[in-house]
Amino acid sequence: MTDPTPDPVLLARHIAQQISQLTDHLAVAPPRQAAHILGHVLAPDGVLDGMTGLVAAGSRFAKDRATSGALPPEVWLALGRASNDLDAICGDLAEHTEDLHRLTQTPATVTARPVASALVARRHR
Fold it and tell me: pTM of the entire structure?
C-alpha cells in the first residue's frame, strides 16, 4: 500500500505557488472579492495563522538541532523571533477582520466609517 501523504517538499512548493497565485488574484480583485480573500487569509484559522504555526514548528525543530550542535543557535533564535512576530501581527490584524467583513457586504448595507489619516495631526496650542 502506498503512503497517501504527499512529499512534504513538493507540498511546500505547491503551497508557495498557490500563495503566489492568490497574491496575483488579490492585486487585481474588485474590492468585495479582495476583502473576502483578505478575510480568509487573516482569519484565525487562515493562511497567516497557518504560516505562523509552520514557523513555530520550524523553531522547535531548530531548537532541537541547535541544542545538539547541528545548527547555530542563531537559527533557532531567528525562527523563534519570527514566530513571535507573526503571532503578534496575527493579533493586531484580528482587530480589523470586522472592517474587512463589512466590505464584503452589499453596498446598501455598508456604513461608512471615518478614515484616519496616516499623518499625525498636530495640536494647536
Answer: 0.77
